[in-house]
Design goal:
By secondary structure, the chain is α/β, with parallel strands linked by helices. The protein contains 19 helices and seven strands. Strands 3-2-1-4-5 form a five-stranded mixed sheet. The longest helix has 35 residues. The chain is globular and about 85 Å long. The N and C termini lie far apart (62 Å).
Length: 409
Amino acid sequence: MIYCGIDWAERTHDIALVDDTGQLVAKRHITDDAAGYKILLDLLAEYGDSEENPIPVAIETCRGLLVAVLRTGKRKVYAINPMAAARYRDRHSVSRKKSDPGDALVLANILRTDMHAHRPLPQDSDLARAVAVLARAQQDATWNRQQIANQLRSLLREYYPAALAAVEPWKNGLCRPEAHEILRLAPTPTQAARLTRTQLQAALRRAGRKRGIAADAERLRDVFRADYAHQPPLVEEALGKQMLALLVQLEAASRAADDLAEAVEQAFPQHPDAEIILSFPGLGVQLGARVLAEIGDDRTRFADARGLKAYAGSSPITRASGKKSSITRRWVKNDRLNSAGYLWAFSAITASPGAKAHYRRRRDDHGDWHAAAQRNLFNRMIGQLYHCLQHRKLFDEQTAFPVELAAAA
């Protein structure tokens, strides 16, 4: 059997092929373009790569055009963690020497000796991979929007506390279009104090408000004309210009998050697993798409529910040595899935009586803190999701939480 290792880079890649004995049978240096990919595929075919008997490939990444080319057909591609590859390198040399062809050889030998200990990339459908791209991009845009909003809030605290008081009653405060229109109209507290009711009402209308305009304009006028401390005029004007620059970034991040959320709402319901995922309490379109993006639709990816729980970081980990033993939370995990699971469990507590009873039992009877109880609930529900996806069943409250429902009754 032949094994392939690829040390990838931005412009060129090194390929190494080894046989069962570890003997190097071929090596190439290719460019990162269509011509280079053709040389790679021809090289694999020369050494027996076919649809019935594909050559497994090890590479230190899971994305990019090179990986997309390698994943055609039934070929198994193994994404090796760079830290793991560095440990394997020490098995072959103690002099700490390193080269790109040598790294390709190390990757090929990883498959030759320990292929059973590594997982190939899942064979997800194209639709699932498209949903993953959109859901992750929307998640990144949401995080970016919140980061810029936090920077803007911190800046306003330095010279413009009236703006924070003005947007406090609104949900999502500084991310709302009404806040953007008012801050653009009056970037400093001195200018805000001069705003009239007519100007405030016009700003709210430009932001898309239809109701309560007069009452909100009156409230904003009173807030802006209240007594606050001020920076020196020149400093206040400079801070206002800095605030406007941050406001432009926040508006762009908000538009990106909204556009990607709309794209997710169009793509996710088309997937066959969407109905099952949305049947779970606490999962909507956006959060359900994030869950699907991380677990995929390859049913052979996880051997059992325990594997999925470990991948999500919801199951605890035991460290035992001699007389010492400790059970702690799992730090090595899929951070995106773990973040989605936190929001999922938080929403399920209010959406499901059984989930709420389970959470209260973990807090009251087991003495868990809030995060630990919520993580335990996520651990249980993602196991239920694995079962439902494997057997094509919708979520059923009575089956999922029979004991908790009886106790609640």
